[in-house]
Specification:
This protein has one domain (5-83). The protein is an alpha+beta fold and 84 residues long. The relative contact order is 0.14. Helices cover 37% and strands 25% of the residues.
């Protein structure tokens, strides 16, 4: 079973951009600036686009929470490695 979200980058071609892949229905890839999730955000739909704005906003909030948790976890891992 795949995770609901996958964090991806392509730092050689777009160094200031990150991507999050939503693996469940509706599948999409969200592209955004490294420094600000809401900056220059673009959604690339794999499944049909969500037309309901409230549903889309809820999903984007979920994506943003995933990103924050993931980045916090990475920071904690780097801190642990430095202190070892």
């Amino acid at each position: 079973m795949l995770p609901k979200f996958l964090l991806a980058d392509n730092s050689q071609e777009v160094p200031d951009t990150l991507f999050i892949v939503h693996t469940e229905y509706p599948k999409f890839i969200i592209e955004f600036d490294v420094d600000d999730f809401r900056e220059n955000q673009e959604i690339h739909w794999i499944d049909p686009k969500i037309e309901n704005e409230e549903e889309l906003d809820d999903l984007l909030d979920e994506v943003e929470a995933f990103l924050e948790d993931e980045l916090d976890n990475q920071e904690d891992l780097y801190d642990e490695e430095e202190n070892s």
